[in-house]
Design goal:
alpha+beta, seven-stranded mixed β-sheet, 293 residues, elongated, 8 helices
Length: 293
């Protein structure tokens, strides 16, 4: 092969590699906007509340995901405009698992969580317990959709958010360590006579280890349900201890949480051998029901 032919082959090969590299860069640079759009599409459907994200940064080469300034609104029937705001969410992914059926997340950190606790008008519920109920109902609906026969009219009847959620649930996760830090709860009293706090009440940091260690892993919605569940439990405890006059409200919230923990129960059943002390994390099946071996 003469030098000219070799040169042409190298030019063609170089061009192909260049196109591939540019394509990868475009994907990496636009993944943030794709994730942001997905969160803002599926989130409101699952929570029954507005979800807004300020920015998303993703670097597939280092396995880093950073999301900042997340806003979660209140479900229908509550007056305050928000239930949560989250300053930072950082995720460290094992890069080699990105193309695998189970994505391995070494660390999942939510830092700077401001909670706005609002009792319902009848004092039998609150905005956080209602969000848990909404997620549970959405999860059950998705499970029913998966089991339903595939028909064109069925496919057309689903919303875009539901279709995207089904795709998302196909991704399995393993989270080695999940933590929520710098959590503060504000009491929003829209009902006359209900006590409020003069300053935000601190909530004990939340740390979960070993989610989805088994082969099957866990789904994003299952993880979301557990995070929301654990956060709500922490808030109910902190509010009840700081303001004894609201103990009846927090007890009612606990009861509602117990009765709508289907999503958390599914996670408990699927990862009971892989999650450390998960029975103490969720409001059902605690240690008092266990027997010592």
């Amino acid at each position: 092969m003469d030098a000219k032919k070799k040169r042409k082959i190298w030019i063609i090969a170089g061009s192909v590699v260049g196109v591939i590299v540019v394509a990868l860069l475009i994907v990496v640079l636009t993944l943030g906007s794709i994730v942001k759009a997905a969160v803002q599409t599926i989130g409101p459907k699952a929570l029954g509340a507005d979800v807004k994200v300020s920015s998303v940064f993703i670097n597939l080469f280092t396995g880093t995901v950073a999301i900042s300034d997340v806003f979660i609104g209140n479900p229908e029937g509550y007056k305050n405009d928000r239930a949560f705001t989250l300053k930072k969410l950082k995720i460290h992914i094992e890069p080699s698992s990105i193309t695998k059926p189970k994505l391995i997340i070494r660390e999942f950190i939510l830092d700077g969580v401001d909670v706005y606790f609002e009792p319902s008008s009848n004092l039998l519920s609150n905005n956080l317990s209602q969000l848990n109920k909404n997620v549970s109902s959405f999860t059950e609906k998705l499970a029913g959709d998966k089991d339903a026969p595939e028909k064109d009219e069925f496919e057309d009847s689903r919303s875009d958010a539901e279709k995207e959620a089904v795709k998302t649930e196909e991704q399995r996760l393993q989270i080695d360590k999940l933590s929520l830090t710098n959590i503060y709860v504000n009491i929003v009293a829209s009902i006359p006579g209900v006590a409020t706090s003069s300053a935000p009440i601190p909530v004990v940091p939340i740390v979960l280890d070993g989610l989805g260690q088994d082969e099957e892993g866990v789904t994003p919605l299952e993880v979301s349900a557990v995070i929301l569940n654990k956060l709500t439990l922490g808030v109910l405890k902190s509010v009840g201890e700081a303001l004894p006059s609201l103990k009846s409200v927090t007890d009612a919230g606990q009861h509602l949480l117990d009765s709508t923990a289907a999503a958390g129960g599914k996670l408990l059943e699927g990862t009971k051998d892989a999650v450390k002390d998960l029975k103490n994390i969720l409001p059902f099946g605690g240690k008092k029901n266990e027997t010592k071996k």
